[in-house]
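Table S2 (text version). Query chain:
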Amino acid sequence: MIILNIIKRQWNSKVQAMPRIPRSQNNNGYVESLIKILKAIEKGKENNHILEFEGSKSSDTLNHYCIKLRPIGIVELKNSKWYISEEISGWNSENIREILPEILNAKVKYISEMLNFIKKPKKISVILEHAKEKYNMTWKDNSQVYDRLHWFMDLGMVEHIGYEKKYVLTNHGEKFLKAHPPIENSEILRFKYDQTETETEIHIPEFLNDTYTYKWSSDINRKSNIGYVPGGLENAANTIQDTLDLARNYTDFNSIYDYLSSTYNISENSNGQYITFLTRLNILERIGEKTYKTSELGLELIKSENIDFNIVFILHRYYNYIFEILYLIKDKNMTVREIATVGKTKFNMPNESVDQIRKRINYLKNASLIIEDMGKTFKLTQRGHLLCNKLHQYYDNMIEETTKIINDKDENTKKNDIYNLLYDLRTSSIDSSNPTNFEKVLQKYFEELGFFSELIAKSGTTDILLTAPTAPKFTYKVNIDAKTNREGKITESLIDFETLKEHKEKHKAQYVVVVGKSFVGSRLIKRAESNGIALIDVEVLETLLKNHQKYPLQAIEYLPIFQQKGIVNLDVLKKQYNIMNRQKDLFKLIIKILIDNSNDDYSGGIISSEVIYFMIKQETQNLDISITMKEVKDMLSLLSNSLIDCVGKTKEGYYAKGSLKDAALKFRFYYDVSVNY
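Corresponding structure-token output:
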């Protein structure tokens, strides 16, 4: 009796792909090929030893085939040499047929499950659908089913019924299935529960120190778009490990491509994308035009015990919004879309790409830091909580900067209010089951911009009526029509232009705006333009509100936005923004000049407007700023006004009455009066 030391993997740790080695053209097929490879290892053949197989045109190095076999745990690499693993240390040519099915079932998904399904004859297309529907396999074609069937045909456990184009389990297969029954669907669901719940401490390898001990938010080199890994992210650790092993002592583009294309059937372009991703992670170095070598960091990674866990640290070092997600869901379960929205509004992600968030989630799941909970939300595992506790000081240090939606403001409460408003804006815009939420958020949004914002939202009326708070001669009214859609796409069919015209007349509004997550279709845009309707998407609203914190225009100054037809462009506000920038620069320059000359013995700290003007010209001669005399006098008049009174005025000229900070506090005083009114 054979005594084996086969370690059966949990379902979520099993690989999806069968080993792709040549199939010998004899009755033993794959089994014969495997025996040849294992014997070459036993004989101590060099890694570059060429292996050929009976009836097969394929021939390659021992190293090449060992890399393909390693995911199933029967070979291992030690000091750049291949060895047979202890799990099958008692193998020989006679017992390999008994060992191999157990190894494959212990390491690869959908083995016993497939055998159980073909107790009655099934076509390969039916088997593929079963694998995808019942066991969540992500295969796009039947190649993986084909590989499984032919491996087990060579093991005598599956028979092909040629005239029916079906496959069925043999008696030998039935015996194996009794000893190794399939995993039940409920057991797969069990892996959604926390398997780290008994862990009490967490160890981070020393070689990863530089991946998290820095100011997270300040590193502009952290990219947003995580790259491609062949074979799916569930198997990312194995694929990356194999590639780095291949490149230990240099390799080239074609060698990596040959391995990946034969294993995962990828294109040359995909191979290039994958290599680029590894070089950006600094685990693979490019040392020639198409020559690569595993970096020191990469070598440390493949020597480490838990690559799935350790690779997340390297991702965090070079890609934005990795460990930040852990802190985000630390106290509140969130869906993929919610995580994407927060990434855009709070953590400087360029967009709400659900695909990019899913990539991050898969890496975190592989590391057992998060799990999927009921309702398609995600939460931390015990290991995730332990890691958050260990790294909290780095997160706490960066949170102030990452929440800087309000540019240079210091008030945390204000920051949070604006962040919450932007978050609500995005989430409510896709909540088509409750459109009232979006209307309420928009009412609050336009109030933040300084409008009188009236929520009406009744049959036969507009949703929100905006009024610019100024004299009747200069005021204007805007009808806001809020549109929600679960996919975030507002199409022509969702907008009734004739009704919008009726509402405009009813409310005596000068302008009409439709607001939605995004607008799709050239016909929609053309119709909006021909009907004089402005279309504002959530992205524009977010940018506008952020700009408002830096350039607080008055409602009347936002008129150019609503005068547009079709898709709204914020470039119409550049002139106003430039004016405010000039005024800000002039304010700082005047105060600085007066303070710098406060102790001047000749002038006694009093300077005329003409001298101030020429000093400003001197200060700004190398800058792209052209200040006029009128602007200088207007600013001095404002600053010396009795209400502001941060610049003193005499017959001889002007003098400073405090620091720049004192002047800012005086303006702040009047701001506080207005917001608390």
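Notes on Table S2: The chain is about 45% helix and 10% strand. Confidence is low (pLDDT under 50) at residues 402-410.
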